[in-house]
Amino acid sequence: VVDRLVIVGGDAGGMAAASQVRKGAPDAEIVALERGHWTSYSACGIPYLVGGEIDDVEQLIARRPQDFRDRDRVDVRIRHEAVAVDLAARKVEVRDLERDRTYRLGFDHLLLGTGGVPVRPNLAGIDLPFVHGVQTLDDAVHLVKHAQEVSCSRVVVVGGGYIGLEIAEAFTRRGLHVTVVERNQYVLGLFDAPLGQRVTQAMRREGIEVHLQVDVLGFRDGVVLTTQGELEAELVLLGLGVAPNSALARDAGLRLGVRDAVVVDRRQRTSAEGVWAAGDCCQSRNLVSGEPVHVPLGTVANKQSRVAGINIGGGYATFPGVLGTAISRFCALEVARTGLSTAEAARAGFESVTSVIDSTTQAGYMPDAEPMTVLLVVERRTGRLLGAQIVGGAGSAKRIDTFAVAITAGMTVEQIVQLDLAYAPPFSGVWDPVQVAAREAIKQI
Amino acid sequence: VVDRLVIVGGDAGGMAAASQVRKGAPDAEIVALERGHWTSYSACGIPYLVGGEIDDVEQLIARRPQDFRDRDRVDVRIRHEAVAVDLAARKVEVRDLERDRTYRLGFDHLLLGTGGVPVRPNLAGIDLPFVHGVQTLDDAVHLVKHAQEVSCSRVVVVGGGYIGLEIAEAFTRRGLHVTVVERNQYVLGLFDAPLGQRVTQAMRREGIEVHLQVDVLGFRDGVVLTTQGELEAELVLLGLGVAPNSALARDAGLRLGVRDAVVVDRRQRTSAEGVWAAGDCCQSRNLVSGEPVHVPLGTVANKQSRVAGINIGGGYATFPGVLGTAISRFCALEVARTGLSTAEAARAGFESVTSVIDSTTQAGYMPDAEPMTVLLVVERRTGRLLGAQIVGGAGSAKRIDTFAVAITAGMTVEQIVQLDLAYAPPFSGVWDPVQVAAREAIKQI
User: Fold this and answer.
1) How far apart are the CA of B397 and the nearest CA of chain A, in angstroms?
2) CA dihedral B211, B214, B216, B217 (to 10 degrees)
3) Which one, out of A63, A125, B172, B191, has a CA that is 20 to 30 A from the CA of A436?
4) Does the annotation count A152 as an active-site position?
């Protein structure tokens, strides 16, 4: 039974475990160390704050330190940073950032929920004040200020992934001129080309300048230097993804894996006895390819942390892995994916067939029916679904969940055609686009 | 190999097979007999025509006789009714309704897609002209005329199921006064009480008069007689469901099952060699209870007919069964269900736990987030999901498909919690309501 658990990191990866541990171990001491000011906030909500759909940064705070103290009796220590872990002595070295002092804290169980750090490539001028991340609540406040300032009219977004796309929409909503710079041939590089190109076109229709196959070389005040010349900007946003924040784990001697993420087993145990990790700092496994991956998403962090908490509390739970399911909205366009893309399937050694269909979000004769495109990646020999992608109007993208469950269950496209899915004219045609896509894939095989 | 296939019935149950047969048997002769004027139309779309969302009855026609002739070389005979089947002689007796003559048509394979008939209880006055069904395109035209007439102001809907609910909304949209008469304690009797009551309240908020626990005794011109007195009405609509139209099959000596639906095996074969059935006229099997059921839905008809067509064409396909998945929209409220309700689970012999959660359609802080309620029925011993129900705002009900796949795959609520479902603030909280519901069920077990 756990005696004293120390949690490093006040966001989902660390804190979602707390209530589970408390349930299993009513008498355990739980200490949580957070170097920032906040626990549990929604970084994913920042674009909607910048775009003006949400008014107040406070709305993004899911649970405050006092909530954890009151509900789960967690000793939350804000502005306390874990600077080292001594595994032999079972102690964490903690820096109290407010009082500028250091102390050592014993543990029998340690949960690392240190999260991720936005990728900042080593480019000239990257530390100039006009170059920003989109990660912390401080970033959020700063970006909202920019969005409301008249003097700021040109924004350059580096990277055309989900975050780049969402923040580009947000600033466009505010009336600023936005340029997106992307290295790939289309935005959303985790999608197959036909869908990525469709989103690229939609961005251009919204007035966003999209520069493809361009590398950023560096920054000067008011200027972004690229392989295709200079771009003016009052504000630069980095949307280059998130790397695991695993320095503490590495220094403690824990085993690291893909992209230096902390290696964990299916119970979220690290390579050291009594040391656990969950969330953006740790590695996961792709359920289709079986390969280790780093997927820094809030959904995964919450699930892994819950599993870690159940196990630390003396229960039994396992985290099976991820599909890399993701969803985003770009103005009226919704996009989503799950499982493997065609390129990922090939890299994992699958012989696959890719099929694409165009359908509608509602019965074709309904006035609000909108176009919806579905792409499936299917193993040729078996007909097993390996991956799915959706781009379309309102109501299209959340259908990705139907595919996510089907992939998890190892279903073939023939089995998907036979699924008893819901139909009424305001929701789909009599064959849901999910099944229209599966029927097309059957033809291709 | 099939030589001459005769299809009885020009809607989904019969006609969806045609293209599959044509694929497998390029040289087969295919004759389709339809006693009405139309092939393949969307009866489910009638409420949206009556409500004015769709302008023209023609929009509900999915495929015309000529489409089947051109695309699949089907000899479609409109206004030809199959009046008897002589199994020994392998002949159908056909009545040409236009020319008022009868002829015999040989077959080696016969597909019965005779559909369903709206339930019309044997009540005094049920044949009065102001009492209508909501099934055929002729019904549709007639109802639209009523909806637009100034003289018609009071409509009584008998039965608070999906059709009753949808047609009540449609007439309310047109500004008519609508009364719904329901025998049960709440509308949507296939739902558990908490959700059925919520929909009942929503109907009343829209100004619809809902009379519960009332039986209709009969009709007089302008009056509906009930166990709680008389109701005035210029128009009465029967929303009492659909029974299998199996008289032809019964007279031919085919085996009938539940509610006199034609018994078929998983390849859609009836009890007679070379005779197949699909759609509303035939029986199906519930995937959770294993029991025979009659589920007259367009989705099921299309799937069964596809399976019959593949098999008739010399291929191999099976129809596994149904979950009774259904979805509907009532003004801003969406409702859906799949699998077993609490009462159905009990009748099937399951020891189950029912849990209910309230969540939101988007992240709670998003301005368009709407309430969403999810009810789960879970087998106590195993944690296996048996059924799910949803009532909520825009974007809530199609999530039933996620549960439908999970039930089909035999997943437990613990497995559902671990699913990699899509999350971004415009689509859900970090735990999708599907998973919030699964977590609550885990607590209850």
Assistant:
1) 9
2) -140
3) B191
4) no
